[in-house]
Amino acid sequence: MASIKAQPLSVLVLVLALAFPFFVQGTFGTIECENLNKDSCAFAVSSTGKRCVLEKHVRRSGAEEYACATSQIEADKMKNWIETDACIDACGLDRSALGISSDSLLESRFVRKLCSQQCYRGCPNVVDLYFNLAAGEGAYLPKLCEAQGAKARREMAEIKSSGYIAPAPELPEYATGVNFVYAPAPSPF
Fold first, then answer.
1. Where does the record locate the signal sequence feature (predicted)?
2. What is the mean pLDDT of the chain?
């Protein structure tokens, strides 16, 4: 009689053990850029580690459509990441930004927000992206942050002409298990 009661319990444990991986994947899911909507695409990282970009397509009728696509820019070991609204606000970003560009690094107001404590210390995904974009332009993001304000453009030109690229800034303690890799910005030409 004891073996009969133990058998249904062991079957239940086996069923739960087999179902757990499906439950976890269903809860966390995998991020595919093409499945993201316009409001969560920009500044997201897919489950393969590729950055997501928002693209605009114009139909023959003139109607504009927005679609999320997978870029070739990688965020090494950072995967399944949709940037939080708090980081979007703290870093002065816009969810409707199309593509990935370093142009905003020439705007002192944006650099001030990017270099703020809330963004620089609390949003490693954004800092990694702009660190790599700056490096692709021959600039060093921490040096840009030091030269905020009117001197930022001059500093960018000086850094750009020197060709010096230093290592990435130290990550916050909670992001120590995440590794980042340099990914150059795509050429506009």
1. 1-26
2. 76
Return phi, psi of residue 135, to 5°: -60, -35
Query: pTM higher than 0.85 for the full model?
Result: no
Helix (H, G, I), strand (E, B) or coil at 66: strand
Q: Residue holding tokens 């298990």?
A: 177
- How many structural domains is the chain composed of? 2
* Cβ-based neighbours of 23, under 8 Å, separated by 6 or more: none
Q: Are residues 103 and 73 in the same domain?
A: no
* Structural domain harbouring 32: 28-82
| Paired residues of 53 in beta bridges | 69
Task: Using alpha carbons, select from 32, 45, 107, 38 the residue that is nearest to residue 77.
Answer: 45
Instruction: Average the pLDDT over each of 32-36, 51-55, 64-68, 145-149 and give the range with the smallest value.
Output: 145-149
Residues 147 and 136 reside in one and the same domain: yes
